[in-house]
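tmp note - Helix-turn-helix domain-containing protein
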Amino acid sequence: MQSPPLPTTALRVIEARDADEHAGNLTNWEQCYDQTTPGTFHGLLEEMQLPDMQVFRESTSQGMRQTCCVWPDALWFGLPYSAQATRINGRTATPDSVLVRPGHCEFELVTPADYTIFGVVVRQDALRDAAQRMGFELDWERLSRAEVVQASPAARRQCLHTLHALLAGDAVSATDPQHLALDALLPLLDTGVVDSAVRDSLARRQRIVAKARDYLLAHHDQTITVPDLCQRLFVSRRTLQYCFEDVLGMTPVQYLRILRLNGARRDLLRKPDSAVRDVAADWSFWHFSQFASDYRKLFGHSPSEARQHGPH
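out:
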């Protein structure tokens, strides 16, 4: 994925009724969303493209496990607006946190229902120029490895206020919007303490969860149980439980069910000629009535209605 050219100021607002449709609406990102809480999905994206930046506000009605990757030669900064906790690569962010990830580097977010986050993606050379212009000194090596910045609450509130005004169009006519966004962002990085340390124990749990996910996806047409995973990953049931609860905030059984249901949902949309029962069986749902019930509970509609609710 090459660093894309960004147009001059352009604001767009787009809604979605499907998690994957919503994931694909964010310009120049590679994303995959799994819905984790029950109910119909509604996503709202408000996005502004600037010459060297992307500013957006994303709202999702249901809990999500997100795999994300932004364009190269850039840095992404996420400012959760919801009081509920956000997990980034298994770490729980505090209410005053600023999330940070470099471009061309896949990361994971786990977010709750009724969630809103503001995001800023900026080319690294533009951020350097702005820092030099404003007299800020940034630790670039640590920043590029960070996942969380603990910022000044006052600076964070001011940044959120500025981003909100930009997306509402309140500040665009009288001021250069890119300078305005950079001027609000840089104080967070200058006064914050970059926390790039990931405990060895957490890193190990992240690896175990990632291996479990890869194995489940590779064998989605087979009935995989928790003991099967334990045997495959050479861990005890208690260890596996701790890993999933620490990294994803859910049990292995809950995650296995959610993963399979989201996989079936995608195939129902991508394979319109396939029978619903065949899709269910391909994701190891052998009792169709139970599959239909679980599907409706998670997504708010039946499997047979999925194609009506999906992307058009």
